[in-house]
Amino acid sequence: MESYLTAKEAAEYLKLAERTLVRLAHEGKIPGVKIGGQWRFRRALLDEYLDTLASESVATSGASPSQVIDASMEEIFTVDQIIPDLKASNRPEVIHAMAEHVTGLGLVEDQAWLEAALAARERLVPTAVPEGVAFLHARRRASDKFPKQFIAMGRSPEGVVFGSPDMGKTNIFFLLALRNDALHLRWLSRLAWIVRNPTRLGRLTDADSADAIHAAMVEAAGALPGALRPTGAPAGR
Question: What sequence ranges are listed for the domain PTS EIIA type-2 (predicted)?
């Protein structure tokens, strides 16, 4: 199982000063978690950070970055955006089911584009992490393809081999569709913080309905450390 990197190791990996890395993590700009008062980082999520910096962001339907709001969990993650019993046995089926669900809700206007974009991102670097969770998203924040930002979630009780085979099965799939890179990285950090805790992750795995899953997520979001809490303020690119 992939281990956490220390702040020093992560800074060396990213070629940053350690104090810069810690500041960016504290601001929610680099995905990391505090364990016992010390910052720790997963290499897979640092790769995601690098990939986000390298990718081209697309502006929000003509809106300036200052108009993109760092909204609360309740605003971007609703009960109907949860699939509590995801019917899929492999990666393409997971992607299809998630894309079909959010398209049916009117959250995405072009299902074919979303499926192709999610599949392309997984081919680049699988988004599954050892906790049995994956963070699906398109590499480019093509917000002209969806009317508003959102997070959706699917849960497969049986699990699906989604990353490398030695990682085991993935049971929980988040689909992130945020308006810009800054918000994408903030929500990636928040979700990673939520699922890192076995108790919080267990509640998501054991919940008996979409309503129960949603309640567990909202409760977890309410416990986010100060640096990771949604601000309700505009978020830059």
Answer: 75-220
Domain ranges of the chain: 67-228
CB 214 within 8 Å of CB 237:
no
Whether the pLDDT of residue 136 is over 80: the answer is: yes
How crowded is residue 71: how many other Cβ atoms within 10 Å of its Cβ?
20
DSSP string for 2-47: PPPEEHHHHHHHHT--HHHHHHHHHTTSS--EEETTEEEE-HHHHH
Q: What is the pLDDT of residues 182-207, one digit of tens each?
A: 888 889 989 999 998 999 999 999 99
Q: What share of the chain is helix, strand, coil (3-state, %, to 5)?
A: 50, 20, 35
Could you tell me which CATH number the domain at 67-228 has?
Answer: 3.40.930.10
Per-residue model confidence as pLDDT tens digits over 90-100? 999 999 999 99
